[in-house]
Design a protein that fits this description.
The protein has helices spanning 113-118, 155-161, 164-169, 171-175, 233-238, 248-265, 275-287; strands at residues 5-6, 37-48, 65-76, 79-83, 98-99, 105-108, 129-131, 150-154, 183-186, 190-191, 198-202, 211-215, 223-225, 268-270. By secondary structure, it is an alpha/beta fold. The protein has one domain (5-287): Ribonuclease Z/Hydroxyacylglutathione hydrolase-like (Metallo-beta-lactamase, Chain A), CATH 3.60.15.10. The strands form two sheets. Strands 1, 2, 3, 4, 5, 6, 7, 8 and 9 form a nine-stranded mixed sheet that branches. The chain has a five-stranded mixed sheet with strand order 10-11-12-13-14, sandwiched between helices. A hairpin with a 2-residue loop joins strand 3 (65-76) and strand 4.
Amino acid sequence: MKHLIVILISILFFSCKPKKNEIPKKEVQETVINPIKLRVFSGGKIVVNNLELFSQDTTYHGQSKIFADPFYVIQHPKGNLIWDAGLPENLVGLPNPFTDPSGAFTVSRKDSLKNQLRSIGLKVKDFKYIALSHNHFDHIGHANYFKNATWLVQENEYDFFHSDIVKKEHPELYNGIKDLTNPKKLNGDFDVFGDGTVVIKYAPGHTIGHQTLFLNIGLEKPIILIGDLYHFEENRLHKRVPIFNHDATTTKKSMEIIEAFAKEKGAEIIIQHSPKDFEKLQKMLVKK
């Protein structure tokens, strides 16, 4: 996908010294704005066969839903950042989608990270930062490729997914991030480039150190990439919490905090797993 948003640099012009008896020309000055680009790519597709997993009650019993699974590239003058990492790349090239042993999820991925980055003239080595909303299988797919980048991760998230219990009981989660050996451990919100344009917002509950990403990059309004604070529109509307969240109470508190922050900043929440929001963001980028 080659949709993009570009904020162009304005150039300061100054007029020549006026000649005698000549009416001075007005100086033209425009604000210089650093160029920031946002790209959104597909990291695969998820068919949730058992949607009941996404509520603490039986609201979604017998229902299924299709999830998008995007990842995002932010190009900033001070460095490139990749946000989230899609589904595992061993799905690319499979003749059929893969269904997990429980039957809850059917997943597929059509394209690789390197091929998608190539479409915008970038390589893995061009990234200064990688940040994951959290360390679940559908967000860490190609994360290990970024072993030379700085990993922006909440300290409690890092510690939990490097714990002996995770290595033993969920080795696939540990293995998905084990090559990220250059962490910058965070304890709360973090302004990535120091200018307020790209800010990690701490929002624990889905996992112990779950985080979201606030972007104020010249769109019609700021946006918040919500990670898995919400998975689809109904869960946001009714504040429903999946049964597999780390802590339901903490999740709801994070919902309150992020919603209040979005209102304060006039920001639009982008539900990352929503196919509607995936298409909406693409249109926003094209429009800009």
